[in-house]
Design brief:
By secondary structure, the chain is mainly α. Helices cover 67% and strands 2% of the residues. The protein has one domain. The protein has a two-stranded antiparallel ribbon.
Length: 227
């Protein structure tokens, strides 16, 4: 697989929240506005790209028995750097995101890509993988946050975009609204998968994808590709 393919797969084919269903906790919790979604996504890009790069560089010297602990230490160090940067330059956003910034450490996207990709591939491919997955995650959160903010507040990035007299749907910026929007988006993507499969005569991608972070997913994915 080329570096470009490693990058582009995270933008659609393996889109983390909507294709692989990874990172759903921040996806649901912080996307009550487009600003929050974009901010969380940028923080994840920083951690994901640098953790992939560092893990790829030291993968040959990390003992297999403690690799997960090492991955967590690397991710935690980068998350501390993100926290300090946000506190210094984007403190209001840091307050909005709250506990979900330090929880990036245990985000399954970070550990999943470290185990499934960065620990097995070179630096260039790992950086491309991290950047593609991070951008896909950021676009997903910003898109979901935009829908919820527009329908729930009538604004987009804090600016009014709806007509005069528009009655906001307050449920959209509350917890149930996150689940409603996510469900509708997943349904829409499944319909696109089925439509594409009908055109090409292949099995829908949604039925074949796995995160690859565990042996079961990796084995299933390999069998599907060989079949």
């Amino acid at each position: 697989m080329s570096v470009m393919q490693d990058f582009t797969k995270g933008l659609w084919k393996e889109l983390p929240p909507f294709r692989l269903l990874l990172g759903l906790c921040p996806t649901l919790a912080v996307t009550n506005s487009a600003d929050n979604g974009l901010g969380m996504g940028m923080a994840v890009i920083f951690v994901l790209v640098l953790s992939n790069m560092i893990i790829s560089m030291v993968r040959t010297i990390i003992p297999k028995k403690v690799r997960i602990a090492c991955f967590i230490v690397i991710a935690a160090s980068l998350v501390v750097a993100v926290e300090l940067l946000m506190q210094a330059y984007a403190y209001p956003l840091y307050q909005q995101l709250g506990i979900f910034v330090p929880l990036i450490v245990v985000n399954c996207i970070i550990l999943g890509r470290a185990e499934a990709f960065a620990a097995k591939n070179g630096i260039a491919a790992s950086v491309a993988d991290g950047l593609g997955m991070g951008l896909g995650f950021t676009l997903s959160l910003t898109f979901l946050g935009s829908i919820r903010e527009i329908l729930g507040n009538g604004t987009w990035f804090g600016k009014s975009v709806m007509w005069e007299g528009f009655e906001p749907l307050s449920i959209m910026v509350q917890a149930p609204g996150a689940f409603i929007c996510l469900g509708l988006i997943l349904a829409g993507m499944n319909m696109i998968n089925i439509w594409q499969a009908q055109r090409t005569g292949h099995e829908p991608e949604a039925l074949k994808q796995g995160c690859g972070s565990c042996q079961a997913c990796a084995s299933a994915d390999t069998q599907c590709r060989q079949g």
